[in-house]
Amino acid sequence: MKAVIFDLDGVITDTAEYHFLAWRHIVEQIGIPFDRSVNESLKGISREKSLENILIRSGAEAKYTNAEKQDLLHEKNKYYQTLISKLTPEDLLPGIGRLLCELKGEKIKIGLASSSRNAPEVLKRLEIINDFHAIVDPTALANGKPDPEIFLTAAVLLGVSPADCAAIEDAEAGIAAIKSAGMFAVGVGHEQSMHDADLIVRQTCDLSFDVLNEEWKSYRINIVQK
Fold first, then answer.
1. Which of 7, 43, 96, 152 could bridge across to 171 with cysteines, CB 3.0–4.6 Å?
2. Which tens digit of pLDDT belongs to each residue from 87-120?
3. 76 with 110, same domain?
């Protein structure tokens, strides 16, 4: 294992609540209902795709011009940025700070593969941006998760073969992207939604270099035997 690639929301920090509040703030202004079940379906996908899904669910996809949709996206992001301005290092999810330290101590490269364009700002506020050797710019990608492009791009930026990478996600679309990239997939969350992952942990505090390394070794042995 030469590199570990992280998703952001739900893996490094829990900004999912901020996304929920921001989407609800925007779409309720135009008369579209929005609840946590809808928000859950948006995990791991881009802002544009999220808005498209919200409008399709409510039968409103044809009611807005592209310019109007861009205005909604801008307003959502503006509100979200206001919310994340309150983030501090205390908002790191349990165990993540320790894991980053362990990976640095083992000379493992660290990358970020998040669909969020605000990821660098979030990492700055968490005071961990200098721990990352590569941060993928999602605006430079042609395809979002579950396409593997974002993880393959992270591997290129890190100078590591995908086969030598582990990646950590909390969304089904993210796990699918990792597996399509040919990487070792670590899922954080319920087994039911993370069933395609090679390693599943219930919460981030269960992650450590030792756990990743042991499971990685078993995974590689199985690959070779096949």
1. 43
2. 999 999 999 999 999 999 999 999 999 988 899 9
3. no
Tally of domains within the chain: 2
What whole-number distance in Å separates Cα of residue 68 and Cα of residue 145? 25
Query: What is the token pair recorded at 53?
Result: 């899904």
| Interacting residues of 60 by C-beta distance below 8 A, sequence separation 6+ | 30, 32
Distance of CA 92 to the CA centre of its chain: 14
| Residue spans of alpha helices (H) in the chain | 16-27, 36-40, 47-57, 66-84, 96-105, 119-126, 149-158, 172-180, 209-225
Whether 110 and 135 map to the same domain: the answer is yes
Known catalytic residue: 91? Answer: no
205-220 tens-digit pLDDT:
999 999 999 999 999 8
Residue 47, domain extent: 16-84
| Catalytic residue status for 206 | no
Q: Which residue has the tokens 């501090």?
A: 88
Q: What's the order of all strands across the beta sheet hosting 199-201? A: 134-135, 109-112, 3-6, 165-169, 184-188, 199-201
Rg (CA), the chain: 18
